[in-house]
Amino acid sequence: MQTQNIVDHIVTWLINYVENAGLQGFTIGVSGGIDSAVTSTLCARTGKKVLAVTMPILQAEDQVSRSCEHIDWLRKNHDNVLGIDMELTPVFKQIQTSFPGEIQDNLTMANTRARLRMLTLYSFASHHRMLVVGTGNKVEDFGVGFYTKYGDGGVDISPIADLMKSQVYVIGQWLGISQDILSAAPTDGLWEEDRSDESRIGATYGELEWAMGHELSHSSGNIAIEKNLDARKKKVLNIFRKLNAIGKHKMEPIPVCRIPKELFTV
Fold first, then answer.
1. What pLDDT does 211 receive?
2. Could you tell me where the DSSP H helices lie in 59-195?
3. Looking at residue 185, what DSSP letter applies?
4. Which range marks the domain in which residue 95 is found?
5. CA-to-CA separations, 235 to 29, 70, 207, 242, in angstroms, rounded
6. 20 to 30 A from 241, CA-CA: which of 1, 77, 198, 217?
7. Spatial separation of the C-alpha atoms in residues 37 and 23, rounded to whole Å
8. Number of domains in the chain
9. Is 167 found in the same domain as 57?
10. The pTM is what?
């Protein structure tokens, strides 16, 4: 992996995209995780204006501290970065008091948190004439659909969506991302209990990368090969396939009902 060349390629791509769009820079949510840390650093390296926004909602203290420390680090190293702290807990609690109780199941409210953050990022981006930058990696965005539709999936551009999670870590180390972030268990931060991604998915990102690669290499399905897999790999493959199927509606274009032309004639 040519880490520096990949970094340079992404930074150049970001510069070209924002200039062609005629906009001023980038707005990005910083969560305290590796994906947002790497993505925000790549945006900062463009020299364009960057709004790095923390948006805690009933957040674990370690997530908030990692977010703030990363933004402080960005600001010390890049004078084009502005840090913004948006405490969204009061807004979320107001939503809780307004929504009917019967729709406030855990998943619905977790997704509501993500959509509240999307609304916040677009408000800043619209005012400052910026692009909202996505932080999803390849496994999340195109493997298992591990994001909220119109939440953290509601973005203008996705600079690291062609990188596996393991590759994001390599780039993070090269960029000098803090060890606290590099060693933190991946989490989407959308649950009141501090659930890790692995505990929710049932597999590690390394295992999901293997499964995604297996599916791409054997897209027609090779029963003989699968028979030789050990029990754990078979289980991971089933997890990947189930989540991939469930998440198809996120990963494919919105279906449009095409009307036959003859129905428009009288």
1. 93
2. 61-77, 89-98, 106-128, 138, 165-175, 179-183
3. P
4. 3-183
5. 34, 36, 10, 11
6. 1
7. 22
8. 2
9. yes
10. 0.90
